[in-house]
């Protein structure tokens, strides 16, 4: 692939696999709130969406107050299980290290909270990311381009020299709306056929395919 000055990434299902922890937290919260159980597949399909949107799909309700009460319970479970149950994909750290060695800047644009993402980048992975823009840093979530545009402003890199990589159709939409190149990774729940309907420079089975 061609080289870029700035590489922006989604987090869940792109850099890390936190599926087991997310499923656990949702199942526990559904039980604690007295709501009907949902299948793993139904929950998986919401990973990467803004949290309140994901909750509303899982609880089958558009009631904002109900979703926020659910979120309050979910957060307590996430504090217990999320970071411990989040793992880098085998090629994530090496890919980020190589991109940085080539002089690129690295950022993350995610619907997850910045503070939760920061907990993952500790120890040997500390310093691999220059900027994290999480859910608390934007007013509008993907596919709105706000997060990507904030990153472009912060890094002072033009859209033409930026690549955004993600696993979901909402990532593809955000890249399209921001006017940056997009590379898809098929490590999430969005398939190749869906990605082909969006502008893209690559559809990859793994992150290391980004390397020049």
UniProtKB/TrEMBL annotation:
Pfam families: HAD_2. The keyword Cell wall biogenesis/degradation does not apply. GO terms for biological process: DNA repair. The keyword Calcium does not apply. Keywords: Hydrolase. It comes from the Bacteria. One of its GO terms (cellular component) is cytosol. Gene3D superfamilies: HAD superfamily/HAD-like, Putative phosphatase, domain 2. One of its GO terms (molecular function) is phosphoglycolate phosphatase activity. This is HAD-IA family hydrolase.
């Amino acid at each position: 692939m061609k080289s870029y000055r700035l590489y922006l990434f989604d987090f869940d299902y792109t850099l890390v696999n936190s599926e087991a922890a997310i499923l656990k937290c949702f199942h526990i919260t559904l039980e604690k709130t007295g709501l009907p159980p949902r299948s793993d597949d139904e929950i998986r399909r919401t990973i990467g969406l803004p949290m309140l949107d994901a909750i509303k799909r899982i609880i089958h309700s558009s009631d904002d107050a109900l979703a926020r009460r659910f979120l309050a319970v979910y957060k307590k479970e996430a504090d217990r299980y999320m970071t411990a149950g989040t793992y880098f994909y085998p090629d994530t750290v090496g890919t980020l290290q190589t991109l940085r060695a080539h002089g690129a800047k690295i950022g993350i644009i995610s619907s997850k909270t910045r503070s939760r993402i920061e907990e993952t980048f500790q120890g040997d992975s500390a310093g691999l990311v220059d900027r994290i823009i999480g859910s608390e840093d934007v007013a509008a979530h993907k596919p709105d381009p706000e997060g990507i545009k904030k990153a472009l402003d912060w890094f002072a890199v033009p859209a033409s020299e930026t690549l955004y990589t993600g696993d979901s159709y909402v990532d593809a939409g955000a890249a399209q709306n921001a006017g940056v190149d997009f590379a898809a990774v098929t490590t999430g729940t969005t398939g190749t056929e869906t990605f082909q309907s969006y502008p893209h420079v690559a559809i990859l089975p793994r992150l290391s395919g980004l390397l020049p």
